[in-house]
Design a protein that fits this description.
By secondary structure, the protein is of the alpha/beta class. It has two domains: 93 residues, D-Maltodextrin-Binding Protein, domain 2; 98 residues, Periplasmic binding protein-like II (D-Maltodextrin-Binding Protein, domain 2). Helix 5 links the parallel strand 2 and strand 3. Helix 5 packs across helix 10. The longest helix is centred in the last third of the chain and has 21 residues. It is globular, with a radius of gyration of 18 Å. The two termini are 19 Å apart.
């Protein structure tokens, strides 16, 4: 997303780097305080208060994936909410629990303790499919908001001029490593899902996400200024 928010990057991602393969995905969940009445994403986003700017959502910082992804969801849901950025998820979730904000989009690691204690309620996962970490939580598409998927994902890259034969060999080895049960379990402990994707799929994903996120970046006032 950097090309969308920063005008003077010292590199052009898809020109200066060659994708080797996707490594893992980190799903994001929409969560609210358990004291809130909302039982689904639609309950929240269709609430009249969520449409007139009376509700606030938290993020771990301006320009973060949580910020931009939530703006995309709100925009496509026809809602209007106040953004309250925090310096990380820890204070954001603390205020969410106490009711200072109404929702947050975050990965499982900062949410897990409060979910286990029953202080937070997960309403949806922003991935294309349900997460094995919380399989009973529906996707945003299932909740009535298709096209709002987002997540943090990791990929391996090589310099742009790396011969394709070398890239393909590295990609094949990456696929083997990620298929190893021990490797997959190690990612689970980090809250990630090991999920290989080929170089061309990574390139297409970058292009698709830049197009999908551009309106949300503009709506959040984060679009790169060229002058």
């Amino acid at each position: 997303l950097l090309p969308l928010t920063q005008a003077k990057l010292p590199f052009v991602p898809l020109n200066d780097f060659a994708p080797v393969g996707q490594v893992s995905r980190l799903p994001y969940f929409l969560a609210v305080s358990a004291t809130q009445p909302y039982k689904s994403a639609k309950d929240l986003l269709a609430d009249p208060k969520a449409r007139d700017g009376a509700l606030a959502y938290a993020s771990n910082g301006i320009g973060s994936m949580a910020h931009i992804g939530t703006e995309m969801l709100i925009q496509r849901a026809g809602a209007k909410m106040i953004h309250v950025p925090y310096n990380g998820f820890t204070p954001a979730i603390a205020d969410l629990v106490t009711g200072r904000t109404v929702m947050v989009m975050a990965d499982l690691a900062p949410l897990n303790a409060q979910l286990q204690d029953g202080k937070l309620r997960p309403l949806a996962v922003a991935s294309e499919k349900r997460s094995p970490f919380l399989p009973d939580v529906p996707t945003l598409a299932e909740a009535g908001y298709p096209g709002t998927e987002f997540e943090v994902w990791l990929a391996l890259y090589a310099p742009a001029k790396t011969p394709r034969a070398v890239v393909d060999k590295l990609s094949a080895e990456l696929n083997k490593v990620l298929a190893n049960p021990a490797t997959r379990e190690a990612f689970v402990r980090l809250g990630h899902e090991a999920d290989y994707a080929a170089p061309d799929a990574v390139r297409k994903r970058i292009q698709a996400e830049q197009s999908a996120f551009a309106p949300a970046v503009r709506a959040a006032g984060l679009a790169a200024q060229t002058n």
